[in-house]
Amino acid sequence: MRLKEKLVLGSLVGSVRDGNRLALARLLSQVENNTPEGKECLNALFPYTGKAHLIGITGAPGSGKSTLLNQLAYTFRHPPEGEQARRVAIVAVDPTSPFSGGAILGDRVRMRELAGDPDVFIRSMAARGSLGGLASRTAEVVQVFDAAGFEIIFIETVGAGQNEVDIARLAHTTIVVETPGTGDEIQAIKAGILEIADILVINKADSPLVDNSEFALRSMLDMAPIGTDYYHSMEMRNNPGLNSPKDWQIPILRTVATERQGIDALYQTIQSHAEFLQESQEWIERERVNLQTILDNLIQNSLIDQWRKSISNDVYQTVLESLISRQTSPYQALQILMKGVLP
Amino acid sequence: MNEPKIRVLIAKPGLDGHDRGAKVVARALRDAGMEVIYTGLRQTPEMIADAALQEDVDVVGLSILSGAHMTLIPRVLELIRANQQEHVKVFVGGIIPNEDIPALLQLGVVKVYGPGTVTDEIIRDIRAQLSSSEFSEK
Ligand SMILES: Nc1nc2c(ncn2[C@@H]2O[C@H](COP(=O)(O)OP(=O)(O)O)[C@@H](O)[C@H]2O)c(=O)[nH]1
Ligand SMILES: [Mg+2]
């Protein structure tokens, strides 16, 4: 681990709560690296979490997520008359190169307007081999921001695939960003990702194809109204907080992020969604889903670790070899390994 | 515990018009397994220091072609120190006249790279700097 930590643990937690940005930055690294110190700080900070509005933003690379966040965060900092400015954190996840383990984290390039604001904190995270659009410690990093008093926490996902449902389990509000293209393209993009959307955004609405896209998106939503079987796949049924509840009509908004067009409407829609969640009790439901997901993941990882330690490598390798030579089926291999002794 | 990664901020202070060189370095560092935060063109020293803080980086690489290095670099160093990030190693690349180099090193820049530097050298230097000080055994 790094020796550069000059702040000792106890004071790290206190400093983070007091708004010390250096302490916050260092704690985020500890948490990201899953160090024992990081875990201890998370324990101490946990009682202070649960206050922030977590907003996920997902969509293909290049669709304009970072540019939108720049504008949205700016609006939360400089809201319309009569509304309070909120402290904003942004967690931007980018892919890790599977070849080198390195990463280029480029989301800050689009977030210039937020520079110099002491109530904005942007942190880039590499996915570090985790699939599903988030890094394995994104949820914990978000907890630190929450405990540090950031009221709005944006999470930008990698945006690579169909299986980015993790963000819907973490966030209260999930924004899915599409860009104009042919209807077919949209169909292909996301049979899976549309169902996690609370708000659909068609960014780059300066393109002439925008009408087509909106039409295609609307008909997809109409074809599968909330509450039908299409939306209530097995997983959705088991995780009631994952999809939009019945009486929230998923809005489709057009934006041109580079021109700040449509941003105020998006801001208002996010606020309305937060109100809706609060009034319908769905907020609490989503917090349940979030925390249960975190717990279940921890249990899973820790059981695997424990089991790995309990079984001799010889037994494991022998079973593996016999699987590879097709003398043992995967299910038989599992049975042997769960018993822990070779037959 | 995850293995900590070397985190590097690559920034272009001043009004330079292109960032080809900076991008080449960013990619090379990524391919060497580092996490590179890339901030793009026209960064003020304040933006650079603030990003270095928020991202908790180990290294800041500044690329300057504009000739304004003798005003921009001291300011970046000063702000990084004011943020209590003295441990951050600052490297400079770009077009820097030889006679300016001693002054920059004196100010705390670890090394200055001219045009045509091979990226392997930068990678080696970063690793050497961090293993000798901030990064202990993994
Ligand atoms: N024409 C147009 N370009 C946009 C718009 N929003 C973003 N872009 C550009 O799209 C590119 C990718 O944007 P970025 O925010 O990095 O996308 P991300 O990968 O989803 O985070 C950048 O060059 C942006 O300037 C938009 O509304 N219209
Ligand atoms: Mg982005």
Written description of the protein model:
The complex is a heterodimer of chains A (343) and B (138). With 343 residues, chain A is an alpha/beta fold. Chain A folds into three domains: 47 residues, no CATH class; 234 residues, 3-Layer(aba) Sandwich (Rossmann fold); 43 residues, no CATH class. Helix content of chain A is 45%, strand content 12%. Chain A is built from 13 helices and eight strands. Chain A has a seven-stranded parallel sheet with strand order 4-2-5-1-6-7-8, sandwiched between helices. In chain A, helix 1 packs across helix 2 and helix 4 packs across helix 10. With 138 residues, chain B is of the alpha/beta class. Chain B has one domain: Rossmann fold (3-Layer(aba) Sandwich), CATH 3.40.50. In chain B, 41% of the residues lie in helices and 17% in strands. Chain B has a five-stranded parallel sheet with strand order 2-1-3-4-5, sandwiched between helices. Chain B is globular and about 45 Å long. At the A-B interface, helix 2, strand 3 and strand 4 of A face helix 1, strand 2 and helix 2 of B. Bound molecules: guanosine-5'-diphosphate and magnesium ion. The site of magnesium ion has 4 residues of chain A, from helix 4. Guanosine-5'-diphosphate binds next to helix 4 of chain A.
